[in-house]
Amino acid sequence: MLRPHLYQLVSFHFFLLHLLLSFLVTATPQQQHHNPAPHDINAAQRACAELQTQLGGSRIQTPSSPNPEYRNVATGAWNRFNALSEPACVALPLSSGDVQVVMKSIFKYSVKYAVQAGGHSAGAGWGSVDGGIVISFMNMRSVSYDPVRDVVTLQPGIRWGEALQELEPSGVAVLGGRLGNIGTGLLLGGGLSYLGNAHGFSVDALEEADVVLVSGEMVTATATNRYSDLFKALKGGANRFGIVTRYVVRTVHVGRSTEKGFYGGTIYAGTVVVVLVLRLGRTPPGAIVILPSQRDMKTSLLISSPPL
Ligand SMILES: Cc1cc2nc3c(=O)[nH]c(=O)nc-3n(C[C@H](O)[C@H](O)[C@H](O)COP(=O)(O)OP(=O)(O)OC[C@H]3O[C@@H](n4cnc5c(N)ncnc54)[C@H](O)[C@@H]3O)c2cc1C
After folding, report:
1. Residue nearest ligand 1's atom 51 by CA
2. Whether 166 and 246 share a structural domain
3. Do 120 and 187 fall within a single domain?
4. 11 domain-assigned
5. Is the confidence at residue 93, as pLDDT, over 90?
6. Distance between Cα 180 and ligand 1 center (Å)
7. Shared-domain flag, residues 183 and 244
8. Omega of the bond prior to 306 within 30 degrees of 0, cis?
């Protein structure tokens, strides 16, 4: 019988091999499939050149642009799958109006396009596209709370971690992703948050969305207005029905951090902390220490006040 650590080692290597094989199997055909035809590249290059004239070189960047953002978007997305594509240019809008200009050009030249918010998803043609235009929202990342309507307005480039930090002084939270660097694309295709058990999917909290349609027209979709079918389709539709430039979501009143008697989340502590806690022979007040695993010395603390 294999000893436990040898078994773990063998399984781990099988896992790595499996990961490598699945990457090769999925990545290779995707790259071949998405190699654009020369006329597509020409059309994209014409669209990019026209957009550079309209919006300027810092908002429309090509592989030869001096600014670093083209490379950051083309190769630096959180999900490295997006780095397999080489877009003809990257659009970095500052407003919905910029997105409208870009969409009009995409439509006029029939160019392939992709949209990148937090860049977490791996799907060929989703967050990046070979020979097409990638719209990155890295420069549209504001968040604001309206206490009268009790809603939060988000620009698509913000990450959930940043949004929650900004909202903390108001004592409200939004149903965002469970990792801080996940982006708002979650509102268009998922929505599991730490508050989900009590408040449902993140998409359930969506009140309205500004959407730039493929024609370049911008509409505001809600559950009850004339774009209610679009509103419904967005919840799972990702970038298939238009490009969202503004989200309005309902809030959850969680209180400010000083008012909370609990911490929800994971605290990673190094070996020194674990050894100290164990040497002291007692846990901090109201804390439960989950012992570190054999493989590493990280541990988790569940802290409650008053103690559980
Ligand atoms: C490590 C990890 C942890 C995760 N944890 C969670 C979790 O806790 N809860 C959960 O629900 N999901 C989770 N997910 C899934 C993740 O939320 C989804 O992949 C989500 O769609 C990512 O959004 P994004 O903005 O980061 O990614 P992106 O890849 O930028 O966007 C996702 C999709 O939406 C499209 N899109 C983005 N913005 C727009 C826009 N403004 N208009 C039109 N289309 C747009 C993109 O083209 C893409 O198709 C996790 C994924 C990973 C890899």
Report:
1. 120
2. yes
3. no
4. no
5. yes
6. 12
7. yes
8. yes
148 in the same domain as 241: yes
Q: Is the CB of 113 under 6 A from ligand 1?
A: no
User: How many Å lie between the centroid of ligand 1 and the Cα of residue 238?
Assistant: 9
Q: How confident is the model at residue 14 (pLDDT cuts 50, 70, 90)?
A: very low
Nearest residue (by CA) to ligand 1, atom 9, is: 192
Q: CA angle 271-164-77, nearest 5°?
A: 75
Question: What are the CA-CA distances from residue 46 to residues 106, 191, 285 (Å)?
Answer: 10, 38, 65
For residues 131 and 209, membership in a common domain is answered with no
Average pLDDT, the chain: 82
- The 10 Å CB-count burial string (b at 16+, else e) for 207-233 is bbbbbbbeebebeebeeeeebeebbeb
> Using 50, 70 and 90 to split pLDDT, how confident is the model at 307?
very low
How many domains does the chain contain in total? 3
Check pLDDT > 60 for residue 197.
yes
**pTM score:** 0.80
Structure tokens at 224: 């009850």
Q: Which of 110, 136, 162 is the last residue of a domain?
A: 136
Q: Do the Cβ atoms of 193 and 203 come closer than 8 Å?
A: no
Domain for residue 72, yes or no? yes
The answer to whether residue 112 sits within a structural domain is: yes
Closest CA to ligand 1's atom 7? 177
Considering the domain boundaries, does residue 295 fall inside one? yes
Closest ligand 1 atom to residue 239 Cα is 44
**CATH for 189:** 3.30.465.10
**pLDDT for 271:** 60
pLDDT tens digit sequence for 200-247? 999 999 999 999 999 999 999 999 999 999 999 999 888 889 999 999
Range of the domain at 279: 261-303
Q: Are residues 44 and 66 in the same domain?
A: yes
Helix 96-108 / helix 38-55 crossing angle, nearest 10 deg: 150
Residue 149 predicted with pLDDT over 50: yes
